Amino acid sequence: MLHFPGGSTPRAPRASRTLSSKSTRSVAALLAVPLLAVSAAACGDGGSDGKPPSVSGSWGRTPKIDKGEGDPPSALKTKVLRSGKGQKVRKGDVISAYYVGQLWNGKEFDSSWKRKAPDTFQIGTGKVIKGWDEALVGRKLGSRVEIVAPPDKAYGEKGRPPSIPGNSTLVFVVDLKKITPGAIDGKPVDKPQNPELPKVSTTVRKDKAPSVRMPKGREEGPDRLVSETIIKGDGKKAVDEKSTILAHFTAKSWKGGQQLDDTWAQGGAPQRIPVARIAGWKEGLKGATAGSRVVISVPESSFPKQQRKQVEGGVVFSVDIVEVE
């Protein structure tokens, strides 16, 4: 995987490395993660130690979370602070949510509200910390949920230094916004693929990137940007240079066919990516709609100078556009 300036942060439970000039990865993986509702529900209430922090603020707005009192609880604690009226989250769903995370002592380590955008993550499948998987399945969209995750339901003895020390109990407040498609739903284009580009499969899977068959004997791609839509979606909104998309992508180097990136392997959820942040995307994806798969060959010269040694010969992207914002 390539690692670029901006890198991953403790937001994600796994390393997230993309071909962007800034980090585009959602916290989804950190956790990959409420005005007290009358019908507050509790989960994993074992242990009498510790009092979960009080939370104030309305759904959809940054909550204020007090620090914990006494010793942190030894078991997972979940409280529905606001019960939504939307559909229930099921195991395997890809969820869009706002959240804030802090240590038991009140020190905040992450906030999607501060990034001014929700994060996307797959729930119930081991792609996020256990505390999130166990606390959020079965909750309704529109809910605000407080999660107190002991070390064995978070990052254990190792933690995620420097922001999350080992053996930390973590406190999250999560606003469940919506369930997003986990894969594109367009139809394969009925014409031969461009021979200048690698052969990319039109099979769509939620858990695996399409195959990208690089041409034998070629160590360098076209000296100009080349793109082609091989699956066409019917989304109403088209990508422009200012668009942010929810997308999965895989990337390979023309030189040696080296795998450079693969979002499917990073946690199961598509990523929220401004197209202007990755070389060639704002040109190569222009006009494409949600539900589409676009293959883009980006020449080495299009990348910032500090990245060119890592992308010799150019890069081929296969991009699945799940949503266009």
Q: What can be said about this structure in brief?
A:
3% of the residues lie in helices and 29% in strands.
Could you characterize the architecture of this molecule?
- The protein is mainly beta.
- It folds into two domains: 31-180, Chitinase A, domain 3 (Roll); 187-324, Roll (Chitinase A, domain 3), CATH 3.10.50.
- Helices cover 3% and strands 29% of the residues.
- It contains two helices and 18 strands.
- The chain has helices at residues 130-136, 281-284, and strands at residues 42-43, 55-56, 64-65, 77-82, 94-103, 108-111, 119-122, 144-149, 170-180, 187-188, 199-200, 212-213, 226-232, 244-253, 259-262, 271-274, 293-298, 315-324.
- The longest helix has 7 residues, at 130-136.
- The two termini are 27 Å apart.
- 46% of the residues are buried.
H and E order = EEEEEEEHEEEEEEEEEHEE
Largest sheet: 7 strands, antiparallel
CATH architecture classification name of the largest domain: Roll
Number of domains: 2
CATH topology of the largest domain: the name is Chitinase A, domain 3
Q: Kindly state the percentage of residues in helix.
A: under 10%
Averaged pLDDT:
86
Q: How many E strands?
A: 18
End-to-end Cα distance: 27 Å
Strand percentage, roughly? 25-35%
Gyration radius (Cα, Å) is 21 Å
Low-pLDDT segments: 1-47
Could you say which structural class the secondary elements and strand pairing correspond to? mainly beta
What is the CATH class designation of the largest domain? Alpha Beta
**Helix count, per DSSP?**
2
The general outline is elongated
